[in-house]
Amino acid sequence: xxxxxxxKLGLIVxxxxxxxxxxxxxxxxxxxxxxxxxxxxMRVQTDDALRVQTxxxxxxxxxxLTRGSIQFSKxxxxxxxxxxxxxxxxxxxxxxxxxDADSVYNRSSGxxxxxxxxxxxxxxxxxxxxxxxxxxxxxxxxxxxGVAEPIVARQGAVDQILVELPGVSExxxxxxxxxxxxxxxxxxxxxxxxxxxxxxxxxxNNNVPSDILIMPGTGDSGxxxxxxxxxxxxxxxxxxxxxxxxxxxxxxxxxxLPAVGFSLNGDGAxxxxxxxxxxxxxxxxxxxxxxxxxxxxxQSRISDEGRISGSFTQQEAQDLSLTLRSGAxxxxxxxxxxxxxxxxxxxxxxxxxxxxxIGGLVFxxxxxxxxxxLTGLNAVISIVVNLLILLGLMAYxxxxxxxxGIAGFILTIGMGVDSNxxxxxxxxxxxxxARGARAAINAGFDRVWWTIVDTHVSSLISALLLLQFGTGxxxxxxxxxxxxxxxxVFTAVFVxxxxxxxxLGQRKTQTLSI
Amino acid sequence: MQIFHNPNYNFIRWRWxxxxxxxxxxxxGAAMIATRGVPLGIDFSGGTLVRVQFDQQVSEDQVxxxxxAVPGDKVVQQFGPVADRQIMIRLPQTxxxxxxxxxxxxxxxxxxxxxxxxxxxxxxxxxxxxxxxxADLQKKGIYATLASILAITIYIAVxxxxxxxxxxxxxxxxxxxxxxxxxxxxxxxxSLNIVAAILTITGYSVNDTIVIFDRVRENMRNKRREPxxxxxxxxxxxxxxxxxxxxxxxxxxVLALFLFGGEALRGFSFTMLVGxxxxxxxxxxxxxxxxxxxxxxPQTAAAAPAADTAxxxxxxxxxxxx
Lengths: 514, 322
Hints:
The complex is a heterodimer.
Chain A: H1 3-26, E1 29-30, H2 32-35, E2 37-44, H3 47-67, E3 74-79, E4 82-86, H4 91-97, H5 99-102, E5 105-107, E6 114-118, H6 120-145, E7 151-154, E8 160-166, H7 171-179, E9 184-194, H8 197-202, E10 212-218, E11 229-235, E12 240-241, E13 245-252, E14 258-264, H9 266-278, E15 284-288, E16 291-294, E17 305-308, H10 314-325, E18 333-341, H11 343-397, E19 400-401, H12 403-432, H13 437-469, H14 472-505
Parallel strand pairs in A: 1-19
Antiparallel strand pairs in A: 2-8, 2-18, 3-4, 4-6, 5-6, 7-8, 9-11, 9-12, 9-15, 10-11, 13-14, 14-17, 15-16
Chain B: H1 15-36, H2 42-45, E1 47-54, H3 60-66, E2 75-78, E3 86-91, H4 100-116, E4 121-129, H5 131-159, H6 162-185, H7 192-222, H8 228-238, H9 240-260, H10 266-296, H11 304-321
Antiparallel strand pairs in B: 1-3, 1-4, 2-3
Helix pairs in contact in B: 1-6, 5-6, 5-7, 6-7, 6-10, 7-8, 7-10, 8-10, 9-10
């Protein structure tokens, strides 16, 4: 055997071995459409993060103005990124006191009243941070859910997050856990509870000061009576928030009902200690996502432990501690898309895909052997190697096989063999030119090389754009197609030619069964 | 074995008939779209789709009756063979439902209604697509298809000559339009998978065309004396066997997908089947016809300079060779 053919053969065998090995040992990642699970796309309402920033700035400014005895008639938030100040008498003093706000907001020019609007670069930064934080929080929550191989990633538009949970059956619970903002705030109760919101407002003569917040809550069930909605007047500034949490665990309350116990970090404990000491005898509202869960009376100084009770089920207490542990979401989420595939369906799809692949392979193999006789076998070898490399590379690179990906696999069979046909037809033509088989084969391969390059480039162009366009399953198709096409250049040209050389090298007579 | 022994058909003579036939198909498709619009699948229209498998045989009417209380225009359809006991229920997009709760409300109502009717079932698929996603995908699908066509056109224009690129791209547009027309005739809804198939066709249908153009270029070097029309016709005939066979193998493999690949991929495989046939037909009749028409009439504004430069460079090459 020719030395040249030997190393080519060695290379081909090595490639096959590597492909089979990586497919066998690494296994194929299956997409959600093949193994079942839920695919969620949600949007982070980044406006929330801006609103928090503006609210905080307004409160800080109010404090600063009050401390400096600077007069103003109105200070309020207009929307998530603007607030207005009116009736300022001493502009100079006001500007000095409001210097902090200037780094974040653009101040309108003028005297006496000002409009502050958030600087665009700060706005973008805050929005970006909100999405990043949401992403991290969701990741933590998903990891705590104990799902195998979840995916949490940004997708498409900047504020969209994709979550894929393979094999999750409790879709609703997973969605609730991911979505709950878990914004914990502990606030001092000024007055209340009141039976209605109107009553709460009445307590302030319908003129609620801006540092007081009316918030709904669950009434004290006191001895098992059905809790109704009541309203509390709370101090707007929180004593501590979820950010000060160190840990949260399910526990039991004094009635042995499920509750969530939490502990605070050093900084939080200091603030909490000081506030509880100063407010002994008052109620402390435990607020979760804008609702008062309970409002126990502060008996003594508390530093770093607390408990949230409020007729939870065991599961709810568990889920709530999970979300509290993973941190609050910086902004609320809305679901844009949900796709759930049951596990039995996925298995059925795999079965159908395998059947169709075998069917396609059999059709094409029969056709090639009937039409090209022994040379047809050459194409069969090349297409089988093509498919092995495709599977091997997909497994090695960790790409995901999806249902449309199976279609891509089958297309690789039908389209991959096109290159062989192109070459064989050319060889046939060259053979009629009364040249020897070897010369015809060489001419056949050489003449069509650039045609093969051209056809593959055009197919690759559309496959690459497909990669840009699609969602998970369609991307799986594009990836399969791309790898199949690239492998095809190797198999249809290199492998096929080597097989020809091998066959012709052993024979004296230079005829070809084509 | 050989399907064609030295074929010498005069395809170029039939080009006007071919263009007429294609135009008729495309116009019929366009007329259907004009009267009832392109039916969009849930991927693009948004809305809710629930596919359930019942424990016993249940008719569409039974399910419809069970769902009477659920508001909105429901579509209830048998999915796959009757023996599979699968029914697909589709609900339209509900108003401005961007809020999480209302997005999933429809599917919950369906489940509740089916439970209430005492039907035992298992949910196989639940797709809830909000309006934002649907609109986004529509836009991306159109962009991706156009970008793909543009990129391929540029590639062919660079590798061959501009008039050929126009011919190839006309053929590709032809294939896309014919495929869309057939999707209308057979009442397929446009889904992500179908758009993926259409994009694949843009890359694939141009393959055959490239093979012919490659041959035309090769023949031009050898037979410079012959008129372009003759050269192209010869090239089409020389590559005819290959054109038919490659289409045949691709067709066979996709046919296997159509037959055995399950309901979920049927739209995809149907689209590919039509695209493959149309691609072969357009390669033989449309692409070269347009290339010739554009090359032959240099006074046609768009192609004139291009054809001229191509002719000049050919002359220069010829001079060097001799």
